[in-house]
Amino acid sequence: MPGTPGAGTEDWAVAGSQVTPAGPVMTDLLQAARVVALAVLPVLVGLAALATAVGISGGFGDEGSLADWLRVAVLLLGLGLGARVVAQGSFDSSLATAGFDAGVRAAPLVVTVVVLAVLVGLSRRSEARSRSTGPGQLLLRAGLAGAVAGVSVFLLALVTRTSSAFGADLGQEFDAGGGVTVGLGLVGALLVPAVLVAVTVAAARWSVVRPWSPLPGPLGEVLVVSRVLRTAVTGLLLATGVLGVVGLLQQAVAGDLPDDDTLVGLVGALLVYLVNVLVVGALALLGVPVSLSAAGVGAFGGGDLAGSRADSVGLTDEPVLLLALLVPVLVVLATAVRRTVRGRQLPLTPRSVAVAAGVGVVGGLAVALLVRVWASGGGQGAAVFAGQAVGGGSASVGPSLLWSPLLGAAWAALAVAAVRTGPSLVLSSPSWLVRLVAGGHLHPQWAAAVRGEGPAPAGRRSGAVRGAVVGVGVLGVLAVVGVGTLAVVRATVLTPEAAVEDHLDALARGDVAQVLAGSGEGPEDTDVLLSPDVLDSGAYSPPEDLQLLGVTEYGSAGSAEVSYTVDGEPSTETLYLVREEGLLGGWTVEASTSSVFVDDSSGLALQVGGVDVAAGEHRALPGSYVFSPVEDDVLTADDVTVTTAGGFGFADVSVEPRVRDEVTDRVSQAVDAVLADCAARTEVPLTGCPFLDRYSYVPDDLTDLTVRVDQVPAWELVWDPYGQELSIVSDYDGEGVLTGLQPAYSFSSDQSPRPYEDTFGFSLDAVVTVTGDDVELEFSGY
Hints:
The relative contact order is 0.06. The chain has 19 helices and 30 strands. The chain has a 7-stranded antiparallel beta sheet. Strands 10, 16, 17, 19 and 21 form a 5-stranded antiparallel beta sheet that branches. The protein is about 40% helix and about 25% strand. Residues about 1-10, about 15-20 and about 165-170 have low confidence and may be disordered. It is of the alpha+beta class.
């Protein structure tokens, strides 16, 4: 029974230790509650203070409240102890209903490490004050601590679940029923922290009961190898942190830091996820790529949908980045030197290399799983017009779960192998380098050996090893110098500002090739407005007073605000930039051409600078283009100046055609000639006359015909762009008189001819055809 000394417990504690008789379970429960509270509450308060500071400093004070910051702290605490954040919601209206649930797991290892470290210290102290009477009581105490932690996180998750986040009730965003609940998953909040805390407390108490107790052969060898790898991992994390700080300083010097509010949020996130960032960076230096995988399935409209995607990015994407592998190589060599000269040489055997590989496999996979971000979700819904839909999916991003254990094994084996050759490595390295790596804490025997004043405890000098060390050092120096030079070049020469200035200069001089370089597409034969014949003519005017107003970067992308004047009018434009791949990749401005649409309804062909421009859409540079009509026998129009601005602007080109004056004169002469001809007629029918044609009612037995035109209607020439024809349009206000003689009626006794007189009105509506100097009129009659 737990707490009852007896058989099997006489060798439980180490020699000389005192076992306290077991007390009531309630005492152990209270002690467990105290330990968990002291480990969790300070962290929770610190997270709440951090969330409040970030929220207020980042400009979220008007939207959030103290309750919101506390909820954020609880979410971070739960994530750190292995739970996940979940969101569940529903939507219900007369037109559609829907429901969804989603979850995200992204453990902030800073929280995890702090909580577990405090928990280990308190558990060890508690065990030292009141020893467990046996394994049973130790497991009971660990289980009680786990239960307290699980129930505590569960209750925190329960009371902080809400649909009102940062002052916005998500359920009221839609004019419908339903809402959204955000918080920790209750099952995970209960079980995962309980198991994690129980295992941690059990291990901590065990270390007090059996401190440094001999372990069986394989486990003891694992412990020895782990101590070597601990030194290497510490050095690798420190190197990763230094490189990160250098990168941030470079960003600050180059002025590439985000705005203040965004920066505050990033700093807050970094403080919580610092360990995650360091681990991911360390694995990246080892050559482990970051992978992304996503998959989803669903059904909609009676059909099934499915898809997946996998992608990765790593050092192998850019061969020059492989120089970063020098960092872990130097860390391995430094580990071998430090473990040797500080008198910490461990009993490593050839088998230890294989054991290290096994530890590397397990450790690499474990840390890759810890820092990986997991997300999953699903939903279903129905709409009146769209039918039913259901779907689900999952995604994860983080270090590759394939390469993390493989490369972890390789580097761990290399580290242990290097430590085995540590004495020869120390003796073959420059003394100043050994002292630098050791940090001044040399074992007396090794200190004398390094100074050349005494024999070394082990190892021998080797020219090959010395050459390898010097080679690695030279490569390291070259890499540092190269990276420094690269940083200076990228910060002073290959800047987005320089790329925008070059782009503006190209616009000012009409350099189409450079302007379009960012799009990867040069001008085509159909781009007449981008041709040198047009741009070099006086019909095109480039923008003036080009100025760069500001640049904003978004990682490998960015945007720039520029201003210029076109034809005297000020204009602003947003240019978009992308960083080219490669360490020496500069910035490229994406093409910012405009579109000009030439209308073909005028009946006139157009030119720019003597170059024919067909009807339709054309790419154009920012500036102004003067469109002129092509010479035509009938029509003419004034020149049209069209201004274009970048940013994928659009401009229409249309002219107002008018009949040429000489054509109007010829048509007037033709009208006068027709009227004169009709007035001279003496017999019917009056075919071709605008007032009495063959369709008009005129007695066909008239004789001695006379036609007198008293008033000619006012008329004008009109060009119909839709029918593409020229016509005369007039009012129906023409007047004339028709006289003549008709035969006597057959029943009349007087058989002399009867006089005939008729007054008529008419118009001059006609279709006009002009061919050279000939004019043809086709009157419509009435």
